[in-house]
UniProtKB/TrEMBL annotation:
Identification of the protein by name: Endo-beta-1,4-mannanase
Signal peptide: 1-17
Species the sequence originates in: Daphnia pulex
PANTHER family: ENDO-BETA-1,4-MANNANASE (PTHR37398), GLYCOSIDE HYDROLASE FAMILY 5 DOMAIN-CONTAINING PROTEIN (PTHR37398:SF3)
InterPro entries: GH
Gene from which this protein is expressed: MAN5B
UniProt keywords, alphabetically: Glycosidase, Hydrolase, Signal
Amino acid sequence: MFKFVALLLCCWASLSAGRLTTSGTNFYYNGQKVFLSGVNIAWNSYGYDFGNGQYAANSKATLESWLTRIDANGGNSVRMWVHVDGKNTPAFDGNGYVTGLDNTGTMISDLKSFLDFAQSKQLLVVLVLWNGAERPTDNTINLLYDESKLQTYIDNALKPMVDALGNHPALAAWEIMNEPEGLLQNNVYNGNPCYDTTPLKDTGAGFAFTNIPMQNILKFVNWQADAVKQRNSACLVTIGSWSEHAQTDTKAQSRNYYTDSCLVGAGGKAAGKLDFYQMHTYDYNGQWNSDAPFTVSASSYGLNKPLVVGEFASVCSQNSDIGNMFQYVYDNGYQGAWSWHYLEQGKCTDSQEAQNIGMTRIKDQTANGAVTFPL
């Protein structure tokens, strides 16, 4: 009887051991090389999809219908935003310290429900904690300046999330922030090249007008990445840069600010590093930047980790066909493609129909990594 139970436990562990991993510049799932193809959801109710009873009330039915549609069209992954600007979650006290994930205690069960349904549709999920593309609340901004307040977020919100969800088969990665360069104090010289933002002059960085020093942003990422790794070393961590300008040393007007040495140097936390890079790209006045991902191969950026094109849309792509865009990313050394975005809201947003066409284009391909694989 003991041997039979032990055998069952062994088999269960084997069946439940799947998770996304990296090796060199590639992704693997259960030892199989894979390519991440899918969409940015990225929200149904901006900042109010999870926590404080909002999921069941506002978003569950809609998000589940979207996940079903994405799966039906060959997608294998989605990028989903969590706190966003900090208005709904986490829970802050009157002095700006984080007391918990939310005020009513539904946050973890909301996220688990979303991940469970994603798993049932064979979809991996990247959970994006914060958004730097627009000005967040003052409480959130203060987390980038006050270490004691950031520590309360880590202890009372982030660690409980990682403890509860870190081994979920549908969890692909934790993304610390979307487009942190939006918050940046741009074109400021610093003797430390990791904090010197003069290479980004005239690139458009700092578009959220909060003027936060690069060192603060890197510490913010480093501390949270380290906390994730301390609680679950197998979890992957990333950030999503607004363009290639902030994630490569090989192009003009560019610098890779998110190297291991820059992140650890800024925050002092040894495990606070990224597992893969992610660039966003849109055309400007109908033209690609000469160094944009859709003009070069992934190898041209000189990176030593997987690289995902984390946001793009055919309506802001120098008149590119959406199917050809997914195919280009797949064929040119990148390890993932997530179109923007399934809500169909905003200027540079493709329709769901277009995004479905893009995912369908590559769903059966395997030459550069399997697009269809079981969770």
